[in-house]
Amino acid sequence: xAFVAAVSKRSSVVRGIKRPSTPYLLLxxxxxxxxxxxxxxxxxxxxxxxxxxxxxxxxxxxxxxFRFANYIDAFSGARDQFLRSFFFAFIATVLALAISYxxxxxxxxxxGKWKNLLLVLVVAPFFTSFLLRTVAWKQILGNEGPVVxxxxxxxxxxxxxxxxASAFAVVTGMTYNFLPFMTLPLYASLERIDPRTLxxxxxxxxxxxxxxxxxxxxLSLPGVVAGTLLTFIPAAGDYINATLLGxxxxxxxxxxxxxxxxxxxxxPTAAALSFMLMAAILIxxxxxxxxxxxxxxx
Amino acid sequence: xKRWLSKNLIxxxxxxxxxxxxIPIAYTMAFSFNxxxxxxxxxxxxxxxxxxxxxxxxxxxxxxxxSLKIGGISTLIATILGTMIxxxxxxxxxxxxxxxxxxxxxxxxxxEIVLGASLLAMFLNLGINPGFWPTVIAHVMFCISFVVxxxxxxxxxxxxxxxxxxxxxxxxxxxxFRRVTLPLVMPGIFGAALLAFSLSFDDFIITNFNSxxxxxxxxxxxxxxxxxxxxxxxxxxxxxxxxxxxxxLTGQFVxxxxxRV
Lengths: 298, 261
Prior knowledge:
The structure holds two protein chains of two kinds.
Chain A: H1 2-17, H2 22-48, E1 51-53, E2 62-64, H3 69-77, H4 79-110, H5 115-123, H6 130-141, H7 146-153, H8 167-177, H9 179-191, H10 195-203, H11 208-219, H12 221-237, H13 240-245, H14 253-262, H15 267-292
Antiparallel strand pairs in A: 1-2
Helix pairs in contact in A: 3-15, 4-8, 4-9, 4-12, 9-12, 10-11, 12-15, 14-15
Chain B: H1 2-7, H2 9-30, H3 49-52, H4 60-91, H5 97-109, H6 112-125, H7 132-156, H8 160-168, H9 173-202, H10 205-210, H11 217-224, H12 231-260
């Protein structure tokens, strides 16, 4: 098996050498687009982040003064929202993992001929708009919705209290909205496991739990890493769930960046916060990937 | 009973997870039949009126049209550019390969709000007003990476022996590509295009930054959510859901048939 793979890899290498300019011609248009509209804006944003208001005092006009203290000011002004973003994203990621792992496991090993259909059903809810789904949760959990009515009937919830406009609702929405990003990579890595390794484990007198702990779970680790990253990253930067399902005390860093940009027209602070968010996420991703020991992400 | 439960625990769990997944969909669909009047927050009786007149709410079809146009153009450009990169990465060895991989990975690891804010800041600096084309540019940018990853996976799964066989039968490199490689990669390209379209159609954060006063469908839902979205938006959401499901299930059915032959 390994030998065949090695040989076929060699042959594609040989073919690639034929015309050395081809790959670059294929790359140029796409990479140019990314350079112009991804890399350059980031560099430009780095410049904006150290600007200060101009002398004219006009709203939205800033001049470059390389004031790096902007970062300290920006962070001290939004520390709570920063920590909250990572905390909410962390809880949502853990919940999504708890929901997705058994689901992906069931689809990979227990679904037989229904496998493909079930996979489609996992993704299907996400064919409707992200916004529509979040608004639906807002109304389902809302004061006029069915969940509150049942909980009030059972006296679990007091007559004056509700579920929305709370941290609970924000995390619920986040968990739901990023679920397929967790389930699909988990499924992909579970499905790849050779069932014979599981049989070998039980032949060696391991019980179900030991097999899972020592064989299945370690082999599915690449999926766990990819899934948690794909859930955590968008969750940490999200502000839709916090806006629609939260209250002023559940604002996340995305809310702050958005309002700095549009309401206050404070571009330098918005830029500094954006960079800190990006840097924090990249550092966490690198540490996490290194600890988990999987380099192949793309 | 207890034994049955412990044996099928994971299936029960998976079933409950599916129920959870479909709650908001069922809700959205049900309220597309609501005789809403002014507020679509509570159930006020069954009607087909919203389905008969999906453009009945002001602005909703205008927003939908904008989303479809932006999605169509962005998908076309992103699929072409992304597929080219995927072929370069999947079929060629060259210097700077790992830098290219990094450049593809980075936009996916960057929070949407940073992508949106940085692009808008650049457009403003250059004196370009946000609107239709800046939104298209932004959507192409974040869709490219997803296209590359999807198509690359398909290329990697191809059996190189098929292309070698074509070459052995005296097909030129161009003929081999056109008659063997491309048809084999096509399902991957089609899947990537569907993914790009759904990402573009569904995007709110980056669009909100770069579209100015232009309304897209997600923006429409966001703006009108304060008073409960009109049932016509539920009609459109349900239709999109059914259409997408039909496309995917048809694709599965066709590929199953092909595999059997």
